[in-house]
């Protein structure tokens, strides 16, 4: 059986500048893959290529074995959702209408969302814990709330795969935890999720696969435990980091987490 999503010998260039090349990975239904890497290493560019927003210079990206570059736009939108880093608010629509926009790939041309689509959108708001924002104007809610609305809209889209560009970046501590729990829940329901993050502790605390990106390739790919090591973190971010373990609850496996060393940069 084909993996849910695969990239094979992927290469992308902005003009003469190669962002990544000979990049390969496969992930399956229900997997969560966390992309880590320094600012500007190419995480967003990779996500955009996987969604088909940017064309690969060479190589192939396949969903369920089908090359995405030959898929129709609506079929691709039904299969892959994308949560952008920046959720600007150009129009003062009510939040529920913004979430219903996620249903667009499922509607016939010139038709509007119906009661079924409204119910799906309301369920998506419940899933991300913001049903109380249903009738608020999208332009009058906070940046973090807009990020949660964007996630709800993508859930309402009903894709098999969700690509999320720094989904926790604008969120407070509670909502970061909430979004990571939502991601766990979606994966348990069979969705495949790829997210970028700047917090190595997130994948350590929420066991998932990790790809560490550096110099246009993955320097490590695998379980959080195997990839998030002191030496990989030093190589990627150029600082000394210490991995600590703590027994939070008696009888449960110890939790691993990383902290920068106090004695500074390497
Ligand atoms: N449209 C563009 N044209 C040319 N270069 C670009 C363009 N977009 C991004 N870049 C460059 O490509 C490189 C990769 O950018 P990208 O946004 O993918 O990195 P990133 O890892 O997501 O960064 P961050 O963690 O800061 O969000 C960066 O050096 C960036 O300056």
From TrEMBL:
TM segment ranges = none
Protein keywords: ATP-binding, Nucleotide-binding, Transport
In terms of superkingdom, the source organism counts as: Bacteria
ABC transporter domain boundaries = 5-240
| Gene Ontology molecular function | ATP binding; ATP hydrolysis activity
Q: Which Gene3D superfamilies match?
A: P-loop containing nucleotide triphosphate hydrolases
**Protein name per UniProt:** ABC transporter related protein
Q: Which organism is it from?
A: Sediminispirochaeta smaragdinae (strain DSM 11293 / JCM 15392 / SEBR 4228)
């Amino acid at each position: 059986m084909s993996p849910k999503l695969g990239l094979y010998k992927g290469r992308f260039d902005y003009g003469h500048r190669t962002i990544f090349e000979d990049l390969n990975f496969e992930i399956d239904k229900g997997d969560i893959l966390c992309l880590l890497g320094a600012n500007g290493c190419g995480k967003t560019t990779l996500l955009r290529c996987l969604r088909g927003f940017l064309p690969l210079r060479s190589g192939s990206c396949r969903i369920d074995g089908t090359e995405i570059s030959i898929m129709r736009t609506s079929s691709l939108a039904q299969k892959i959702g994308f949560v952008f880093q920046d959720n600007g608010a150009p129009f003062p629509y009510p939040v529920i209408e913004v979430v219903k926009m996620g249903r667009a790939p499922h509607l016939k041309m010139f038709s509007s969302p119906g009661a079924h689509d409204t119910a799906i959108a309301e369920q998506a708001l419940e899933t991300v814990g913001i049903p109380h924002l249903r009738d608020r104007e999208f332009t009058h809610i906070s940046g973090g709330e807009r990020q949660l609305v964007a996630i709800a809209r993508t859930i309402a889209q009903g894709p098999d795969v969700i690509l999320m560009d720094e989904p926790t970046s604008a969120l407070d501590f509670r909502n970061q935890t909430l979004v990571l729990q939502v991601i766990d829940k979606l994966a348990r329901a069979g969705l495949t999720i790829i997210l970028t993050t700047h917090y190595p502790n997130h994948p350590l605390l929420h066991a998932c696969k990790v790809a560490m990106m550096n110099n246009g390739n993955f320097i490590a790919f695998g379980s959080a435990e195997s990839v998030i090591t002191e030496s990989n973190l030093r190589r990627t971010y150029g600082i000394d980091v210490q991995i600590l373990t703590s027994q939070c609850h008696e009888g449960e496996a110890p939790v691993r987490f990383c902290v920068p060393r106090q004695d500074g940069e390497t």
